[in-house]
Amino acid sequence: EKEGFEHFTLKEIFEQPKGVRETLMRRLNSQNEIVLEGVTLTADILKDINKVYIVACGTAYHAGLVGRRAIEMFAKIPVECDVASEFRYRDPFVDEKTLFIAVSQSGETLDTLQSLREAKRKGARILSIVNVVGSSVARESDDLLYTWAGPEIGVASTKAYTTQLIAFYLLALYMGKLNGRLEEHKYFEMIEALKLMPEKITEVLDQSKEIQKLAAAQFNNEKVFFMGRGVDCDIAYEGSLKLKEISYINSFAIAAGELKHGTIALIEDNTFVVAMATQDKLYEKMLSNIKEVKARGAYVFAIAKEGNDQLTKTADEVFFIPTTLDALTPILSVIPTQLLAYYVSALRGNDVDKPRNLAKSVTVE
Ligand code: M6R
């Protein structure tokens, strides 16, 4: 059932336009209003919520980082985002005024499930973003927002991630409208931009050959790191995890502003740096970070929005994603990082769909 693709992972990367369309369009009515079937959060309930906790593991946690920004930006409620194995053991301050959001593709990750139970015991309202219908996390939640990614076979999470992002944008806009903190024109601007996403993802996938070429040139490079600012930092974390998980390259990610606080010491000739530079208000700052690593011999692969042409003079290679609202770039900018991880892994002859030492769903503590 790989439908002509060499691996499930690649097939699933290419299924993202469909997963994103399903997750989004099933929730929009003809007036562009968001209808969330499994969510019974009312304006009254939301009025009493003064804090949101997003808790998950791995890639789902990285989706949560983007979700945190979206909820703070559109619903203007303070949000914390935590990895489940940490949340559980640090006696977090949770009460009846807390909305606890669990994110999980499988809905069976034990740390996420136990965190949910702990939050529930403390009186929080539980909302989950889950892909597998009827899973444990789904069953134990008050509110449920399914991602419609379809089954994900590859251990590396790809389409689950982009559909989790869509679920978060929908939820953030929904909450912002419900509590009256989101202006109408901003709401509709976001909805219009979201509806263009499946097409734009396809445009990105159409450029996969560029990434394939880059992978062919760099797949033996063991000195790699990712950097970004703002929401690009969240994508740097996700891109780096994907690369290390399936290529076994010792990659890591940093907030680009932290470069001079340590990491720059690692840069030497041909260190491969993936620089995420999609955010308008942080663009100049990223440009200087790119120049700093270039000056020390790094090979820089930048990911930016169409139109930022001066980057081609600064970075060694630039991948352009279609323009969109800055809040929505993660849906597009993560895709070249997924493709890079995939092609590097395949070129190294790894078992891409089943990387060593990993299980699809971690049901032990
Ligand atoms: O099923 P879950 O979304 O709860 O799984 C969480 C993580 O184990 C998972 O995202 C893992 O990090 C992936 N293999 C990353 O690609």
TrEMBL record:
Compartments it resides in: Cytoplasm
EC number of the protein: 2.6.1.16
Keyword presence, Isomerase: no
Keywords: Aminotransferase, Cytoplasm, Glutamine amidotransferase, Repeat, Transferase
Active site location: K360 (for fru-6p isomerization activity)
Domain SIS: 42-181, 214-355
One example GO MF annotation: glutamine-fructose-6-phosphate transaminase (isomerizing) activity
Swiss-Prot/TrEMBL catalytic activity: D-fructose 6-phosphate + L-glutamine = D-glucosamine 6-phosphate + L-glutamate
Subunit (UniProt): Homodimer.
Role: Catalyzes the first step in hexosamine metabolism, converting fructose-6P into glucosamine-6P using glutamine as a nitrogen source.
Protein name as catalogued: Glutamine--fructose-6-phosphate aminotransferase [isomerizing]
Organism, scientific name: Fusibacter bizertensis
Full-length numbering of the shown residues: 244 to 608 of 608
